[in-house]
């Protein structure tokens, strides 16, 4: 059993925001692998698929980004995935340009709070993560508004392409393992022109403090 987790924030107002590229990518994995219809499980949306004779569990935590670990821990415990060699987490990354992806075998959260919460709940950094670049906000922009804002028109084609590439990288991870996927995909992608329009914040004061997060 392989477990692939896509990180994001639940709710329609967060659809297609920068922080939700993990959700978008995992939805493409589900489509490409003809996954079962999703159902509520492990405090998330959950589906199952078969790929190259391997069973895959797909999980979209619905706990808000900063609390992703409690959903992931429930799935890891249920499927007895400790050690966590068979766990892949897909998330956004501010330090990668739009159009780039990077696969890591393990390591720190690198400032991604959903990954940080997973590390805290698992008490381990030893799981693979697939990072999808969203780029740094331009000077003067608030980082929270940036990650909770939607991609601009100049970035739309690149995001459509890179999330498809990331979905295929996740499927290759299932069959080929981390080392081969790192060699194949970590240098893929050319950043598009920067979108200079000010994003419209997606958060509001009705959300519990800190849940949507960075």
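^ structure tokens above, recovered residues below v
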């Amino acid at each position: 059993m392989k477990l692939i987790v896509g990180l994001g924030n639940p709710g329609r107002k967060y659809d297609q925001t920068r922080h939700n590229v993990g959700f978008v990518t995992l939805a493409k994995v589900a489509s490409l692998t003809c996954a079962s219809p999703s159902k509520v499980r492990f405090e998330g949306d959950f589906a199952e698929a078969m790929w190259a004779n391997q069973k895959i569990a797909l999980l979209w935590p619905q706990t808000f980004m900063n609390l992703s670990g409690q959903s992931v821990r429930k799935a890891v415990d249920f499927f007895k995935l400790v050690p966590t060699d068979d766990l892949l987490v897909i998330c956004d990354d501010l330090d990668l340009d739009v159009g780039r992806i990077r696969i890591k075998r393990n390591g720190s959260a690198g400032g991604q709070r959903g990954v940080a919460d997973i590390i805290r709940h698992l008490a381990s950094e030893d799981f693979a993560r697939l990072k999808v670049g969203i780029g740094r906000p331009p000077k003067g922009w608030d980082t929270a508004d940036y990650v909770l804002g939607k991609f601009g028109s100049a970035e739309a084609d690149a995001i459509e392409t890179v999330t498809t590439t990331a979905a295929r990288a996740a499927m290759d991870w299932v069959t080929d393992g981390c080392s081969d996927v790192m060699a194949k995909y970590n240098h893929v992608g050319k950043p598009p022109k920067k979108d200079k329009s000010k994003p419209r914040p997606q958060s509001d004061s009705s959300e519990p403090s800190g849940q949507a997060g960075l």
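The beta strands are 2-6, 39-41, 44-51, 54-61, 87-93, 101-104, 128-133.
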